[in-house]
Amino acid sequence: MKNTKRNFDIEAAAWDEEPRRVQLANDLFHAINNGVVLTPSMNALDFGCGTGLVTLLLAERTGHVTGVDSSQGMLEVLNAKIQSRQIGNVMAYKADMHLGNTLEKGAYDLIVSTMTLHHIPEIMPLLEQFAKALKPGGHVCLADLDPENGEFHTNTEGVFHYGFNRLAFQDSLSQAGFCDLSVKTAAEIIKPDKNGNIKTFTVFLATGRIGNMAQ
After folding, report:
1. Which of 55, 95, 186, 203 has the highest CB neighbour count under 10 A?
2. Which domains are seen in the chain, by residue range?
């Protein structure tokens, strides 16, 4: 497995032109919306926001959304959308995705991350940072691939995990201080694998809530 950093900057301009990505964002937002009650009072964080496909959907249902990503190119696309659509409740900033310790403690009601965690070498420290960044009672919604054999990505640069075992992932969330855990299938992606064969990959959504003691 390669572990060098993938250059998302060069992919950013054409990122939204892939219909599968847009459909996946819609499917995952639908799953998030079914898993957590979204309200106009919520301050939300989209960790690994990319071009904002999920971020801007969240912005329609919550009070404010902060998008965080390590790719300046992706953020430039998102900021262009924010400006052109005159969206007032979204902001975005650049941060190293391997480090969650830049997140403000106790700042968010909801933390969302979709198809980002397989790019993070060490998951447990990040989950612990998510717990600290949430307000008491805040929710986390994390979507990623079920286990696969490294066939999903044509380019495996920056891919540290070939999907996640659901039970192990739920256990990690519990260790990080989350309760009321649920892990459900959120989407299917039908695409050619790296060998050119059409294959169906499943994406789960894990949800949980932080209690007062974790803060």
Report:
1. 55
2. 9-214 (3.40.50.150)
pTM: 0.90
The residue to which tokens 């975005």 are assigned: 92
Distance CA 28, CA 66 (A): 18
Q: Tokens 């496909």 label which residue?
A: 53
SS3 90: strand
Report pLDDT digits (tens) over 152-181: 988 888 899 999 999 999 999 999 999 999
Taking only the tens place, the pLDDT of each residue in 66-88 is 999 988 888 999 999 999 999 99
- Beta strands (DSSP E) in the chain are 43-47, 64-69, 90-94, 108-114, 134-145, 178-192, 198-210
- Joined together, the tokens standing for residue 55 give 């971020």
